[in-house]
């Protein structure tokens, strides 16, 4: 442990109360986002404010938009003349996706009751860059949908009923959000050739070790953020792509990080492993000696000693473990445990004389 302290000249520990911590951990850290290419200029509805559709006994009729200057504008959507490339169909009680006009680049279908995505709706919509299908009841996406939209950049299907990662996703994708489904299957080659994907969100699904193969993520050369939190993994996922910056694995059942697991990840800055089953035995001594690491979160595990890490680390979350830290020099001893009832930010400037 003393050797650990010796690795760096300043130690910043954030000891946060459980509640405070939980709140903070939900906020996404700022990341290098893909360039604003393809970002719609229409104001986006605040997704967080949208209520989840209640399970209806009887589906309400679609909310019909005003008659449009565009003859091809589906009545369940609104078409804003100053944004001819956007089709707004969110929050319209829609059950079936209407035929999408060919001029559409940005398609908003979130917060409806759609259960299936079929190719007919997209037969002419070859220009689509962005599809938001979040918060529907989708259990099936026909793989032929994507054959017609080869330049799709953003696909958001979080909060649906998918049981597997959709097949036939286009290689052009930059962001894929599939969080909060019931996914327990990744078809072979699902992410193949997606060399431009920067964000892959599989948060809150039912993925286990056997669903992820050694080469599942192999082709994702641009991937910066991988979120596999809240699944049922027991092992660290294999074959992570080299450009990864953020790796989120909170709320799994991981008890072991292989010795050279992070070797080759030369950009890795954020690692979250809160709420797993890590103990000292499962953490090789130098496993977190990663030069690029800025933020390491290991709260709610069973660790008893502080792992070694590099001197650039800015945030270390270790609350809800059973750690004793001994700071040489001032001989103060802190016990990090549930007993910490207050929010506490501790900075200990320390220079070892080695
Ligand atoms: C697709 O576009 C073609 C040519 O513009 C048109 O004739 C056809 O009706 C469209 N199909 C649908 C389903 O809207
Ligand atoms: C990936 O991005 C590059 C640069 O924007 C682009 O030229 C290329 O066509 C994209 N690849 C795919 C498969 O869309
Ligand atoms: C930690 O990493 C640095 C940089 O890669 C390396 O020089 C050093 O030897 C490592 N320390 C240990 C104890 O592995």
Structure description:
The two termini are 15 Å apart. The chain has 354 residues and is mostly beta strands. Helices cover 5% and strands 17% of the residues. The protein has 3 helices and 17 strands. It has an 11-stranded parallel sheet, with no helix packed on it. A two-stranded antiparallel ribbon has the order 1-17. The protein binds 2-acetamido-2-deoxy-beta-D-glucopyranose (3 copies). The site of one 2-acetamido-2-deoxy-beta-D-glucopyranose has 3 residues, from loops. Belongs to the small leucine-rich proteoglycan (SLRP) family. SLRP class II subfamily. Keywords: Cell adhesion, Disulfide bond, Extracellular matrix, Glycoprotein, Leucine-rich repeat, Proteoglycan, Repeat, Secreted, Signal, Sulfation. It comes from Gasterosteus aculeatus aculeatus. May be implicated in biomineralization processes. Has a function in binding of osteoblasts via the alpha(V)beta(3)-integrin. Residues 27-64 are annotated as: Disordered.
Task: Label this structure with key terms.
disordered N terminus, proteoglycan, 354 residues, Osteomodulin, binds 2-acetamido-2-deoxy-beta-D-glucopyranose, 3 helices, signal, Leu-rich_rpt_typical-subtyp, secreted, mainly beta, two-stranded antiparallel ribbon
Topology (elements, then pairings):
Elements: H1 2-6, E1 10-15, H2 18-26, E2 86-88, E3 106-108, E4 116-117, E5 130-132, E6 140-141, H3 144-147, E7 154-156, E8 175-177, E9 199-201, E10 225-227, E11 246-248, E12 270-272, E13 295-297, E14 315-317, E15 323-327, E16 332-336, E17 344-349
Parallel strand pairs: 2-3, 3-5, 4-6, 5-7, 7-8, 8-9, 9-10, 10-11, 11-12, 12-13, 13-14
Antiparallel strand pairs: 1-17, 15-16
Bound molecules: 2-acetamido-2-deoxy-beta-D-glucopyranose (NAG) (3 copies).
